[in-house]
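Please, structure for the following, as tokens.
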Amino acid sequence: MLRSVAATALAENLTTARERTLAMVAHLDAAALERQVDPLMSPLVWDLAHIASYEDLWLVHRYAGEPLLHGDLAAVYDAFETPRAVRGDIELLDTPAAMAYLDEVRERTLAVLDALGPHPVLHEMVLRHELQHTETMRQAMRLAGLLAPGEPPDEPLGGEDGWVEIPGGAFRMGAPAGVFSYDNERPRHGVDLKPFRMARRPVTNGTWMHFCEGGGYVRREWWSDEGWAWKEDYDITHHAGAAAGHLDAPVCHVSWFEAAAFARYAEARLPTEAEWERAATWDQGIEHTGRVWEWTASPFCGYPGFVAHPYREYSEVFFGDRYRVLRGGSWATHPRVATVTFRNWDLPQRRQIFAGVRLAC
């Protein structure tokens, strides 16, 4: 059966994403893939099998109505049924079996694609799911010292320091119609903003070191109550990555608590995510490097009129004051994912993500 142009392009994109995933871990042996380096992160082999399980669930079982390839593994590779903290303690597919699972599911996916053609939402969702998981895997690889040579880049930022004036007024926030977007990016809605200033580029390691040397981790007045308690409980006294990195590279692996303390030290603040999105579409001298995610002041909540689709567990279950929104993207984020409306989120104490800081005032 001849594939349509759309189906052919989709098959090629799925193949390219899979080649990228496998190339990322090609230098690792089975022992490295199968151990859990931190309770915050999964064993890499769990991620590989989860990618297969998710693809089979959505593109074969739910789209085509076929039985799951391995229904007995569905709970093991479900992110909610099997939380990260226990994934290193339970029996998982070993590396050869996980690789075989990926191949077998992909054969089923392509057969369904030939029979039914592309789904308007599900194929793109599954493709991006794999691209997003490779960034999560790189977080675990970084914690274990397993990243490939040259990762992450430790290169200076271009551009200059300083501020860009963003005028106030109304703008349309969220993903427009006619493009793929996640449910939390919709619906597009009007937002009124007061004038503000946004830093031209993210905070660098050198600037972060000034914060450290100026008492950044001992000056109580710069920290929120929750941030100070986190710092004291975990004995956070410095930022080793900033000290070791290129002075003009963006500081990375910064928690929201640290980012907010730094902003107070700098007599500035974190932008709201509405301000961030407005500045990202203003494009008047602001450098969008994509080197680090950028924390915002905003809690992760649904937009007015939010409707969960195609499943509420993607984002709705995380709504509320516990999580903070990050915007932009990092060196590990695929450009297909890092759109100006994409919303990332994490807990304010997390440091494992490739997150930095851009200031507003």
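The longest helix spans residues 122-144. The chain has two domains: 5-144, 163-356.
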